[in-house]
Design goal:
With 243 residues, the protein is mainly alpha-helical. 38% of the residues lie in helices and 9% in strands. It has six helices and six strands; from the N terminus they run E-H-E-E-H-E-H-E-E-H-H-H. The strands form three sheets. The chain has a two-stranded antiparallel sheet with strand order 1-4. Strands 2-3 form a two-stranded antiparallel sheet. The radius of gyration is 20 Å and the shape is globular. Mean pLDDT is 78; it is low at 1-15 and 79-85.
């Protein structure tokens, strides 16, 4: 006698879908100017007369470069996304916008309100990685402090970043400050889970958006509430700016 067939639920699957993401930069910056309170710009730049923030040239340039890099990155357009068969492209598009919002929120927290790829303020003072180590045949003194959008610390993590990008960050850690390198390190670390073992799709996907616990992709849950607030504001602005 044959066993009765067990009816299984619809399986999850990996599906490659194309989701073109483009944004109106004008609408994006209009949203930043009018709603920046939630992203904590310097209060000195707020004009009470017109109830808007006046954005610095540096801030506009840095955010415009980031937004352009995101639009040009195929990771946001063509990707393998693990989803339930009933998940529609609209849900995936929304998830990608939420992930981009969290990306910008993380850079806001790690690099401050200028969104500039930079070396850690204080250069690791008070931390173990703040002590210089000797690197290379010429015994170059290097402080293993944070660099770039990810604020990558420790030589072992610089090695991982070098493997991802093909750039020798051990000998030339300043190359992590180059926006293109800083962006690639951050987004690849999120996608592969190389920072902490967690991937961004675990927390923000077509069926779930957990801005608080998404911090585990980068660095535990430190400043998780702060970044969650930034991400919610960026999601609102990006959604309004999406073409």
């Amino acid at each position: 006698m044959t066993s009765p067939r067990v009816r299984l639920p619809p399986p999850f699957y990996s599906s490659q879908r194309e989701i073109k993401l483009k944004f109106s930069h004008q609408t994006f910056f209009d949203g930043i100017r009018s709603g920046w309170q939630g992203i904590a710009l310097d209060p000195g730049q707020f004009d009470h007369a017109d109830n808007h923030y006046h954005l610095t040239t540096l801030l506009v340039a840095n955010l415009d470069e980031l937004l352009s890099a995101i639009e040009a990155d195929d990771l946001w357009n063509k990707f393998v996304f693990v989803a339930h068969p009933d998940v529609c492209p609209i849900g995936i598009r929304k998830a990608r916008i939420q992930q981009i919002a969290y990306l910008l929120a993380t850079i806001r927290r790690e690099c401050g309100p200028s969104f500039e790829s930079q070396r850690e303020i204080g250069q690791g003072r008070g931390h173990l990685y703040g002590s210089p180590v000797l690197v290379g045949p010429n015994n170059q003194h290097v402080v293993q402090c944070g660099y770039g959008y990810s604020q990558v610390t420790w030589l072992v993590n610089w090695c991982d970043a070098a493997i991802l990008t093909g750039v020798n960050f051990i000998r030339h850690p300043e190359q992590m400050l180059v926006p293109a390198n800083a962006y690639r390190i951050l987004i690849t670390g999120w996608r592969t889970g190389s920072f902490t073992g967690h991937k961004i799709d675990e927390f923000i996907n077509a069926t779930t958006c957990d801005f608080y616990n998404a911090r585990q992709v980068h660095n535990g849950t430190d400043h998780a509430d702060e970044i969650k607030g930034y991400a919610e504001e960026f999601e609102r602005i990006l959604t309004a700016s999406a073409l």
